[in-house]
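User: quick one
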Amino acid sequence: MSTLQPGVASVSSRALGVLLDSWRASSGPGYLALAERIRLLVLDGRLPVGTRLPSERELAAHLGVSRTTVAASYAALRDGGHLVSVRGSGSVVRLPARVTLPRPESTEGLLDLTKATLPAVEGVAEAAVLAAGRLGAYLETSGYDLVGRPVLREVIAERYRRRGLETHPDQILVTVGAQHAIALLARVLVSRGDRAVVEAPGYPHAFEALRLAGARLAPVSVTVDDGWDESSLLQTLRRTSPPVAYLMPDFHNPTGATMPADQRRRVLEAAAAEGTVVIADETMAELVIDEGAAGPGPMASYGPAVLIGSAGKSLWGGLRIGWIRAERPLVERLVRARSAGDLGTPVLEQLLTAELLGDFDRIKEERRLQLRRGRDRLVTGLREAFPSWTVPSPSGGLTTWAGLGAPVSSQLALAARREGLLLAAGPVFGVDGAFERFLRIPFSYPDADTDRTVEALARAWDRLGTVASPQAPLLASVV
Ligand SMILES: Cc1ncc(COP(=O)(O)O)c(C=O)c1O
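Assistant: Done. Structure below.
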């Protein structure tokens, strides 16, 4: 099946049909339902701006509708600024100059649940004062650097040592958040046309970074109950010998799965045999909620792996501090390549992060209590409101990957916008439009927002009406 990738200028009827899936189930006229669905795909980034849609005739034939229906849909999209007719190129997707989302019916602002983030931990302001006090020693310097201040690299190395992994500060490269770390690694390790193994569902901005570096993604399934499809993962590694595999072994985003120790060993052994660099994104690893639920320790304790960490979830996203732990030669390559994209991490944020990491045991406990409260409130609320859903209660991380029982995630996300909620529909976490039966919902927000989420989802679900009936057609839940 063809997938949509940036740089691919057109989408076939077949590929668009997969993305559209159950568009017909929307209430109202068929042409509007089709237009709404395409518009959501554009807003979600699943139909990248600049993509040429199939001709009206082709799409009508593929969907089994009249050409008039497709023509009316395209006209509605053109009216809304989501489609433009280009002479010689057909109908091309675009975003209106200013994206106007449907106005929520409530007068409150939209609650943005597309981000699974936490407010700052206690003590950030106090740590900032301490960090500012130390700034004098750096004011004679440029104030930014490509590799990270020694004080922070040492504190990060010490955290790995405390998790049982011997680490020298020279093995640490401080980045501008974990996303920057992923993009930098992708740029250095991937060449155009290379395969990259990823998880499906998985973290969409990692997909984007790998694709931007030229990678063709090879997805491997992860589920809430069974974790990684190990035989498929090992086979994909052997079949494609990819230069990189990007995995989230601890509290995987979005399923919450954690990879057992033995599996880590087998995966790393298979990857090493193919010369594949395993990038283990441990952004969520320290967000342990239940006693004894922590993963079995850093991935690099089980074989060769490059680790990514972040202060963004455990401390505060506003710090924009992440890091890479790798062997020295790779750290040196990354430092040499870095200047093309950015010139370094600011010193004040590094000093502030070093202050906070010194107090990490207290912070972990604060996060644990906060996340346990949020998770229990959300999971209980959802289970009560939606008895037909499957709502997992993950033992760490920030989100639950709810099973809706029907392939209606995009429609639900669209209906939820009208109720004041911004949600990323399930397919955002896949590489080719699957996961319509799932919705990722964060539990990292204050109680009032969690309650509002459940209430607004209940109203949105009611709007879908019969769509959510158990008779709705089944869609393969994984790619
Ligand atoms: C798995 C994963 N990796 C990386 C990131 C990016 O983290 P940062 O804010 O440090 O750039 C996120 C953010 O949501 C994430 O979920």
